[in-house]
Design brief:
two-stranded antiparallel ribbon, 2 strands, about 70 residues, about 0% helix
Amino acid sequence: MKLHDITLTLSPRLPTWPGDPAFELIRVASLEHGDPVNVSSVRLSVHVGTPIDAPRHVIADGPSVAEL
């Protein structure tokens, strides 16, 4: 079976659901600034990129993604 990866690359240019936070990649530590490592923090909505919505998203007792 051939699989096709349709996953979108995370970036600030991705559209977001109205009211949800946009994707942010925040540099926390940087070798360039004398830190011993490069470290980043990611902030995003679960709707950014290529999400999977389970029935529980809109049905109170519907199955979750983990249950699917």
